[in-house]
TrEMBL record:
Gene3D superfamilies (UniProt xref): Glutaredoxin
Single GO cellular component term: cytoplasm
Organism encoding this protein: Kryptolebias marmoratus
PANTHER family linked: SH3 DOMAIN-BINDING GLUTAMIC ACID-RICH PROTEIN HOMOLOG, SH3 DOMAIN-BINDING GLUTAMIC ACID-RICH-LIKE PROTEIN
SUPFAM superfamilies in alphabetical order: Thioredoxin-like
Protein name, per record: SH3 domain-binding glutamic acid-rich-like protein 3
Length: 91
């Protein structure tokens, strides 16, 4: 099951955009295959992201492995800094 990365292509938040670019950059540079899902294109994707995250108000970016929730941007960044990204992504 691939890593699924939920993001928003339309966001007024510069911080959100930078965080999303960072996730894409790290996953690509480490050659970790992932499926990017734009929650602004389909409300069902947003609902699924929130269900998997267990938070009805969760905002992108969020990461999961199949239906297993991995975490949000802060948890991702912490895993990168601690060099435990594969563990975080449950690979």
């Amino acid at each position: 099951m691939p890593v699924v990365y939920y993001f928003a292509s339309v966001s007024s938040s510069l911080v959100t955009k930078k965080n999303q670019e960072r996730i894409t950059s790290v996953l690509t540079s480490k050659k970790i295959p992932f499926k990017a899902v734009d929650i602004t294109a389909n409300s069902e994707d947003k609902d699924l992201m929130r269900k998997i995250a267990g938070d009805p108000s969760a905002l992108p970016p969020q990461l999961c492995n199949g239906d297993t929730y991995c975490g949000d941007y802060d948890a991702f960044e912490q895993a990168v800094e601690e060099e435990r990204l594969e563990e975080f992504l449950k690979l």
